[in-house]
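Researcher: I'm preparing a figure for a lab meeting and need a structural model of a single chain. I don't have an experimental structure, so a prediction will have to do for now. The sequence is pasted below. Please return the structure as tokens so I can convert it later.
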Amino acid sequence: MEETRIYRTMSIVGGMMGVYTLQLRGGVACNGGTGNFYHAAAFAGSGDLLGALYYAVPIGVYFLGVMLSEYLPEKLERLGGLHWNTLLTGFETAALLLMGFLPLSVPNHLIQIVMSFLCSMQYNSFRKADGIPMATTFCTNHLRQTAVSLVKYWETGDGEALRRIKAHGSMMGCFLLGGVAEVAACIRLSQRAIWLAAIPLSIVFFYLLYSDKKAYGFVAN
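Model: Understood. Here is the structure written out token by token.
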């Protein structure tokens, strides 16, 4: 599984995670932190400071997830002999499997906080594929980069610009594909629909685990 395929697969997972909370867990996509700032500003602007503080929790959790994904990799890799992205995808897979057991009666805010935490770590950990900056939990930057590269390609015919158009376009397509599949799963599986996201995520985990073991000599070449 080449690096680009890993990122496309993680983008599918990102689309599924966002649609899951949007469809079943409070109508909020938790892939990024911007939406929570919108809500906090709306409540604060209407004079509801407690309502605004409600959204300070997922914002803080997202912030914490980024900090941990920046602080932990080197330390955990020294302890366990596994790369951070391997450990993260394993943890994320377990968290999504557990989430699928939680009934819809569980407060949406709790699920949203957990999802924000997972997405923030995924976003900060999977950052570049084949030399191209990437995001696996939302599409805004992919949309911008595709437009920028398209203009450059029109003007110069630059091959690198075309490569970037294909890379960012494929990430958006995978994100959309994951979202569409998750909608169908939500209709049929209710809270267990998040298990669908655990399937491609576990594939990435076992591939990375195998690669790590091979690199450290635990698996024969």
